[in-house]
Amino acid sequence: MRLGNKVALITGAGSGIGRESALLFAKEGAKVVVCDLNGQAGEETVTMIRSSGGEAAFVGGDVSKAADVQHMIEFAEATYDRLHILFNNAGIFHADDGSVVDTEEAIWDLTININLKGVFLGCKYGIPALLRAGGGSVINTASFVALLGAATSQSAYTASKGGVLSLTREISVEFARQNIRVNALCPGPVETPLLAELLADPDRRQRRLVHIPLGRFGKAQEMANAALFLASDESSFVNGSTFVVDGGITAAYVTPE
Ligand code: NAD
Questions:
Q1: Domains in the chain: ranges and CATH
Q2: pTM of the model
Q3: What parts of the chain have a pLDDT lower than 70?
């Protein structure tokens, strides 16, 4: 078991990448604290884990609210005694997030608050818990858009993910000597509910597909596999990394026909 005797907290674990990671972490022996704003979805993930013999508990909350995040961490320690793995995965991609000249201030604030401040709060309250456990692994979800500009603008989302990447690097330096590793997972486009609306449109789908050398979108399970590596001791010398899992998008200037 790659995560035996570990306790992991995953935000946004009611869907997509977070849910697949919760299932995989539990299969690899972790006790999983499933966090989500959507109580029903989070409880479903817990039921899925328990029905395959794993251990998990749900705690609700909004990652953009300090009191909620503090409660999530307290819940993890109260339920499983310690916390070793913190996966700050929750995020949104708003349909009205577009060009910098069109995007409403409210959409900007909402996106930055969940995607960037959510990671800040997760680390602010989660890292002290990891220190109490003697160290651990933090995974913050950024995106390939933190590395490349896109003609199909999503200004608030892109800015939020750029912030996650920089914040991750800084935290990884600060806590390295205290046995805490912090890495940023940068997925390429993955077929999850987050992109469902966008990818349902054949034109918008194709416009993105042409940029992926592997010729397809990623799967949530493929991100979970990467997160598992970063969470486990197998990645013991991986710290402060921009861990890109994007089918080759960021390597390509022109993709093969
Ligand atoms: P998803 O929409 O399938 O799942 C996100 C989950 O987060 C949902 O269960 C939702 O209820 C929860 N959530 C949303 N706001 C929250 C909040 N304020 N507090 C707590 N929970 C909240 O999304 P996904 O595709 O699995 O994305 C997971 C992460 O991966 C996000 O940070 C996203 O930006 C990032 N990402 C996704 C893709 C992609 O193509 N799907 C690409 C790059 C990065």
A1: 7-190+219-242 (3.40.50.720)
A2: 0.98
A3: none
